[in-house]
From TrEMBL:
Protein name: Aromatic ring-hydroxylating dioxygenase subunit alpha
Cofactor(s) listed: Fe cation
Organism in which the protein naturally occurs: Adonisia turfae CCMR0081
Residue runs in coiled coils: none
One Pfam family this sequence matches: Rieske
């Protein structure tokens, strides 16, 4: 079966057999409880792969990005041999955070006392070295974490014994195989924003398209209305995915010859648990990686990547990039307003549960099931 033909249920048909006819939303305290948030950071983010960004952001040796694995600061560094290495982002002297943001460097130098580390984390320089016992500092290196590049994205895990990402997401890879995501061009269109909302509320928003027509009136709503949502595979423990079609008048020009007829008219919205979000269009991909900072504060890191077929064919690719990014910026502003209003409403603290639409919000239930499976709550 063609991957795209799995999406064969629409709003005008009966529910797929594995979608409940009645689903409840989580209680408001799920998004406001401080103890629960702290528990999620360890039970979830310490025990699964976490998406941090695109491989193309750091293509050359010495290029790095910084992120957080739950509450743990990390550095992802491109090594001299081309591989990626993820290290704890703190100095072994007195725990100062070593690097901020993204950039390129020949070595890692602590800004406090100038301890120097190689790109692989080995400690090679200590000022006033005679003040330390040689046995205490010789052979020291920054702690390393599991790292994997897959489908053009970077995944990091604290644990070394997890199932590889390539195995974990093999079903998602099959569905999206014709898009060749690992060949999409990263034009360094990356934004970092602080959202005043619990990380789960942001995730909920992006994995359902019930709100598209009603929230995105100035951006994607007219081209991708809620009534054209199509859904198919559900129940995978590691991700969720659905598709939405373009209206006839908004069909994009297609430059990827490998896409089939159904893929020409659709875009796919995938949530890669626990924090990765990917919207795959025929000519570009929008992605977001969530970094929870507190119970009601989340760092949202997002970017746009472009099909190499489109970039090689479009007469003015720079203009195309600018136009697409402008639309996505507007859509993101629309989403941010609604999510922050959800957080404000959840602060009331009611024990009553909301309701989820079947089938349009079944993906929220799938994500909530994942969270409960790892956290127990």
């Amino acid at each position: 079966m063609s991957p795209s033909k799995q999406f064969n249920y629409t709003l005008n048909q009966s529910l797929a057999p594995n979608i409940p006819s009645r689903m409840l939303a989580r209680q408001q305290k799920t998004f406001t409880d401080l103890d629960l948030f702290a528990h999620e950071m360890t039970s979830i983010f310490d025990n699964d792969w976490v998406m941090v960004g695109r491989s193309g952001e750091i293509p050359n040796p010495g290029d790095y990005m910084t992120a957080s694995l739950g509450s743990r600061p990390i550095i992802v560094m491109r090594q001299q041999d081309g591989d990626l290495r993820t290290m704890a982002n703190y100095c072994l002297h007195r725990y100062v955070k070593l690097l901020e943001g993204c950039g390129s460097t020949k070595s890692i130098v602590c800004p406090y006392h100038c301890w120097v580390y190689k790109l692989d984390g080995e400690l090679v320089g200590v000022p006033e070295r005679e003040g330390f016992r040689a046995g205490d500092i010789d052979g020291l290196s920054l702690e390393t974490l599991a790292t994997e590049e897959y489908l053009g994205y970077v995944f990091v895990a604290l644990r070394q014994d997890l199932l590889p990402v390539s195995e974990r997401l093999k079903n998602l890879s099959y569905i999206l195989k014709n898009f060749e995501l690992d060949r999409y061009e990263d034009r360094h269109v990356v934004h970092e924003e602080q959202w005043n909302a619990n990380w789960k509320l942001i995730y909920h928003n992006f994995i359902e398209s019930y709100h598209t027509t009603y929230t995105h009136t100035k951006s994607i709503g007219p081209a991708n209305p809620t009534k054209l949502v199509e859904y198919g595979p559900t129940g995978d423990p590691n991700f969720t995915i659905h598709s939405n079609s373009y209206t006839h008048e908004h069909q994009p020009a297609i430059y990827n010859p490998q896409l089939d007829e159904n893929e020409h008219r659709r875009f796919y919205v995938a949530g890669v648990f626990p924090n990765g979000l990917v919207a795959v269009e025929p000519n570009f991909v929008w992605w977001m990686a969530l970094e929870p900072k507190s119970v009601d504060q989340t760092n949202a890191r997002w970017g746009v990547s472009f099909s190499h077929h489109a970039m090689q064919t479009i007469p003015d690719p720079d203009k195309f990039v600018k136009e697409i990014v402008n639309v996505i910026e507007i859509a993101t502003i629309e989403d941010k307003e609604m999510v922050e209003r959800m957080q404000a409403g959840a602060n009331f603290g009611s024990d009553k549960s909301g309701l989820l639409h079947a089938p349009l919000e079944v993906y929220i239930k799938e994500f909530d099931d994942y969270v409960m499976r790892l956290s127990g709550h």
